[in-house]
Amino acid sequence: xxxxxxxxxxxxxxxxxxxxxxxxxxxxxxxxxxxxxxxxxxxxxxxxxxxxxxxxxxxxxxxxxxxxxxxxxxxxxxxxxxxxxxxxxxxxxxxxxxxxxxxxxxxxxxxxxxxxxxxxxxxxxxxxxxxxxxxxxxxxxxxxxxxxxxxxxxxxxxxxxxxxxxxxxxxxxxxxxxxxxxxxxxxxxxxxxxxxxxxxxxxxxxxxxxxxxxxxxxxxxxxxxxxxxxxxxxxxxxxxxxxxxxxxx
Length: 249
Description:
This protein is 46% helix and 20% strand. By secondary structure, it is an alpha/beta fold. Strands 1, 2, 3, 4, 5, 6, 7 and 8 form an eight-stranded mixed beta sheet that branches. Helix 1 packs across helix 5 (79-88).
């Protein structure tokens, strides 16, 4: 009996130690992220989006950790690239991926280079996914507010290859965070730049992912889904789904 008490006491101590270590790591990450997001070098227009997009809470929901290798899928101007950069820290790395229709825009190369130089742990990745150079190397990937355009313009034939490309990039057990504007089945989602949540779920599963969790962090009940996402009344606070999907081990 005494031996059993010792064993259980040891296990409890190990569990407590692990919990304290995790809490310390999360606290250090959050402090680093708050400092990075408040940096005077960060564009004011990016800072203005933080209240609605809740970067720290999203990172915690997805389980992004210090030292991870991350992928920002269709990064555009790099709002999420900067968030991921702060989340993984100087020991981690972020690939900021953009397809040709972004990289060929006037002024894009200069803006991207400034971002890369400022952040220090970011590498640009030009071209569509999949990319052999990152195949099976990514711990966590994020794509925010992109899937609706691909699906609305080209259906499953356009959207599924992107998700399959993300799947190929992830390590077994890797996480994919998918964020988009909530649409309603049967309405004009193309004009309103939305996509039904179930459509996104179905596409993820067809690409091979397991849906692990969903969050209402980015939900907005005041958005009735009948307006375009750029409608001034929404003030860029659309109702958005947040899905945590995983590549099976």
